[in-house]
Amino acid sequence: MQFIRRQLPLWVTFFGALYIFISWYIPSSFTFQIGQRRMAWLGQDIITGWSNWISIISGVALFYGILTLILYGWSKVRSRQPGYGYSIIMLVSLALMTALGLLYGTKAAPHVTSISYLLAPGKLQVGQEFALGLFGQINPFQWMYTNVMLPLSATMFSLLAFYIASAAFRTFRAKTTEATILLIAGVLVMLGRVSSGDLVPQLSFVSDYIMNILNAAGQRGILLGIVLGQIAFSVRIIFGVERSYLGGGD
Amino acid sequence: MERWEKLVSAYLNLDRRIIYLLVALAVLIPLIWPLNLPVKAREEVKAIFDTIEELPPGSTILIANDYDPSSEPELYPMTVALLKHSFLKKHKVIIITLWLTGPGLVVKALEQVKEELKPLGVEPKEGVDYAFLGFKPGGFAVILQMGGNIYGLETDYAGNRLEDLPIFENVRSLRDIDYQVVLAAGNTIDTWIIYGSERYSYLIGGGVTGVIAPNIYPYYKARQLNGILGGLRGASEYERLLNAKYQVGVGRASKGMDAQTMVHLLIVFGVILANLAFFVQRSIERGRD
């Protein structure tokens, strides 16, 4: 049991990683024949094949994500937890968008989907006429996306402008040398990156210098640090030094 | 002195609702009465425009629309401008999104662009002049799949098999892409560079939100990105370049630049005044001690 829970995953990780690592650096594919079908055992096709599996697993993870969200929302509604009203809105919206997508498809114009055909093979006209009457020539799913989801999401994000303005006004103080440098750089970039920078070319020049030279140098350092950290972490996982992904806390 | 102290204190403790009101006015007034402030195109924006401009007609351009509705104000105008430019130059356009809530924006952009280009006699056909692959889950795995065999993605957004579409006749992998622009609200630009353009050797440019723009400058300086469209300003610069060349009018980004300029000026002015007030208050307190 200990072997299956501890040893086996470590060996699978080690050989799996090694296999992909070697295939990554081989541009062509080594293949073998099974009947009519040619299969790859090393090289580029292995990378492509494995990436297919990752896409499939991502799709399944997405499905589980939605399922968990439904169960979580439903349990909140059932036990009348504080804020359960939001869960009702979430569940109704989820059900509505899913139904519209399945019935009318997701393209720009309304069209007959296989689901709507299966549900009402003899009454397609009624469903189409209903959608046309309610939404015009626009697909109901796309209509909801454009007129409900899009403005709501954009509004939520736009609220940041108000909070940032208020926070900057209250907290952006030149109390220390570092804060003063940040303040000056921030002000110059803010002015140089909008039309004021075009009215006063010096502002634009200084702003571009900060972004292209000073910022790029700092970001490059951060980026290299992150990547080196990722490599070190990957090597630790491959050689079984890092085992937290197995669970159990060791 | 006491009057000064009261004034400074009142300013530093300004009700946040007044700040919100000022920001709202700074946004609304220029949108209602445009100021038509100048916006000059920078090198990094011109680089993307020139690349699309100089490619021979019929070249294949891949647009990755990796953002959702929350970033629509900044990135959607870029999608529209890039699509317009590509169709005007008779390029073939393939669009994909690695973000789950992204497809609706592409559908909307395609409809808008087709409508706006119709009076100019440009009518791109689905499957021939453009293809929308929809949302594909898997992030970097999708890019690797496209690099090995694009047909592995199976179908486009409408459910058509890729090998049946004329646009994919000569496009079998990322190696057949002439140019790509990634419009990203997250870190997919890094992913496209690492697993796409670097591995399969093709040219790539990036359009990002203003918040992300500073993060991708190292790629631009290292020539791993040939150009950058940064935030609303980048979109506005591209719109103006396009309008100067083809007289197609400017879009929402250019109209929004006046509002953004006013809000920036308001914040800068407010922060500078708040700092002056802070120093006056501190000197008064020190004098009292």
Describe, in plain words, how this protein is organized in 3D.
Chain A is mainly α. In chain A, 75% of the residues lie in helices and 5% in strands. In chain A, strand 1 (29-34) and strand 2 form a beta hairpin. The radius of gyration of chain A is 28 Å and the shape is extended. The two termini of chain A are 17 Å apart. The model of chain A has no long low-confidence stretch (mean pLDDT 85). With 289 residues, chain B is an alpha/beta fold. Chain B has two domains: 2-33 and 258-288; 43-250, Rossmann fold. In chain B, 54% of the residues lie in helices and 12% in strands. In chain B, strands 3-2-1-4-5-6 form a six-stranded parallel beta sheet, with helices on both faces. In chain B, helix 7 links the parallel strand 4 and strand 5. In chain B, helix 1 packs across helix 10. At the A-B interface, helix 2, helix 6, helix 7, helix 8 and helix 9 of A face helix 2, helix 5, helix 6, helix 8 and helix 10 of B.
Order of helices and strands of chain B: HHHEHEHEHEHEHEHH
Separation, N- and C-terminal Cα atoms of chain A? 17 Å
| Percent range of helical residues of chain B | 40-55%
Strand order of the largest sheet of chain B: 3-2-1-4-5-6
Number of β-strand runs of chain A: 2
Quaternary: heterodimer
Please identify the structural class of chain B as seen in this structure. alpha/beta
CATH class of the largest domain in chain B: Alpha Beta
CATH-level-2 architecture of the largest domain in chain B: 3-Layer(aba) Sandwich
Mean pLDDT of chain B: 93
Give the structure's gist in a few sentences.
Chain A is mainly alpha-helical. Chain A has helices at 2-24, 44-78, 84-104, 114-119, 124-135, 140-171, 177-192, 195-199, 201-238, and strands at residues 29-34, 37-43.
